[in-house]
């Protein structure tokens, strides 16, 4: 009888990172760098991307696979933000860029909920742990900002005020849980094209932005008052998103008629976020969308949710 040795599993690290909704998103005039100054309030929600980083032999390079809802819509080459995150971390630390990445999607793709940014945040943390790089948190945040304006918030999670490109963050105090339902469309909207339409619609007279415009929203968060929060939701990208996708108006209308406390386009869209009084009410809002046949999929979630964190880690044996 031949003895069979069971191979030890390769070292790996599994990390999860949340998607987000912008409770408020105020957009200023486009700068010379092509970016718009923002005053935004992010809330992380309980829809998570998972990235598993597994050790591969030296010289194997980076590889990437993707699974989960809408996985077929996600590139698996060096244009993927998770791949770019691993490459950037290797470059900055001088370590070899050898890793097999697997992304499990849990955030709608191209929906304005920062799923790709969550992949980048998760890949940074996963590779840092797998390669035992020990990069200080502040440097990870800098790399995150280089990868995309929403990536630092995915690292931080919970609720935060974002200024600059949305990457300069201050945590915001909140009480309790808020119950959301998100309605998504099969075809996404490209973030740059929504910002471009914003410029076309706003013209040269776009006023500067200030987070001070959202004091009522901040009060609602501190009080844990979903009714006041619903009234204060605001998104300057809603108009350009509706202009590019007029059928979104009906999505907003159906949720409002179904008694949502507030309804807003999430980020650059086309996802629409509806705030419910309770988990059941959020589900009922999703049911109203399904019955009216105005969204392709509904996703119920709560916020705030924690930022990027290691879920499991298989060490070298
Ligand atoms: O930073 P990220 O790659 O996520 O941004 C995608 C695009 O969205 C940018 O290239 C830019 O066109 C637009 N954007 C912007 N102003 C911001 C953030 C993003 O114009 N503050």
From TrEMBL:
Residues 217-291 form the GHMP kinase C-terminal domain. SUPFAM superfamilies: GHMP Kinase, C-terminal domain, Ribosomal protein S5 domain 2-like. Transmembrane segments: none annotated. GO terms for molecular function: 4-(cytidine 5'-diphospho)-2-C-methyl-D-erythritol kinase activity; ATP binding. Residues 80-157 form the GHMP kinase N-terminal domain. The active site is at 20, 150. Pathway: Isoprenoid biosynthesis; isopentenyl diphosphate biosynthesis via DXP pathway; isopentenyl diphosphate from 1-deoxy-D-xylulose 5-phosphate: step 3/6. It is an enzyme of class 2 (transferase). InterPro entries: GHMP_kinase_C_dom (IPR013750), GHMP_kinase_C_sf (IPR036554), GHMP_kinase_N_dom (IPR006204), IspE (IPR004424), Ribosomal_Su5_D2-typ_SF (IPR020568), Ribsml_uS5_D2-typ_fold_subgr (IPR014721). It catalyses: 4-CDP-2-C-methyl-D-erythritol + ATP = 4-CDP-2-C-methyl-D-erythritol 2-phosphate + ADP + H(+). NCBIfam families: ispE, PRK03188.1. This is 4-diphosphocytidyl-2-C-methyl-D-erythritol kinase. It comes from Promicromonospora thailandica. The lineage of its organism: Bacteria, Bacillati, Actinomycetota, Actinomycetes, Micrococcales.
């Amino acid at each position: 009888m031949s003895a069979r040795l069971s191979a030890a599993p390769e070292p790996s690290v599994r990390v999860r990172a949340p998607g987000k909704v912008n409770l408020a998103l105020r957009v200023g005039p486009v700068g010379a760098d092509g970016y718009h100054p923002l005053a935004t309030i992010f809330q992380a929600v309980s829809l998570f991307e998972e990235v598993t980083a597994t050790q591969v032999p030296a010289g194997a390079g980076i590889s990437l696979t993707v699974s989960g809802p809408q996985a077929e819509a996600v590139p698996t080459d060096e244009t993927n933000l998770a791949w770019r995150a691993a490459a950037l971390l290797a470059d900055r630390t001088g370590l070899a860029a050898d890793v097999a990445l697997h992304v499990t999607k849990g955030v709608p793709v191209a929906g304005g909920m920062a799923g790709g940014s969550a992949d980048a945040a998760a890949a940074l943390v996963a590779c840092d742990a797998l390669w035992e790089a020990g990069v200080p948190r502040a440097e990870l945040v800098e790399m995150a900002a280089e990868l995309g304006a929403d990536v630092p918030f995915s690292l931080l999670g919970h609720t935060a005020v974002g200024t600059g490109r949305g990457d300069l963050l201050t945590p915001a105090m909140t009480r309790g849980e808020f119950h959301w339902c998100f309605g998504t469309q099969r075809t996404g909207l490209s973030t740059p094209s929504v910002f471009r339409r914003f410029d076309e619609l706003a013209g040269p007279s776009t006023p500067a932005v200030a987070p001070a415009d959202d004091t009522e929203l901040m009060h609602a968060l501190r009080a844990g008052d979903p009714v006041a929060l619903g009234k204060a939701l605001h998104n300057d990208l809603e108009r350009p998103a509706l202009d590019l996708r007029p059928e979104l108006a009906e999505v907003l209308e159906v949720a409002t008629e179904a008694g949502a406390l507030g309804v807003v386009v999430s980020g650059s869209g086309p996802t629409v976020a509806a705030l419910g009084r309770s988990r059941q009410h959020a589900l009922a809002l999703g049911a109203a969308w399904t019955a009216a046949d105005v969204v392709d999929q509904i996703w119920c979630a709560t916020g705030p949710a924690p930022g990027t964190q290691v879920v499991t880690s298989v060490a070298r044996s």
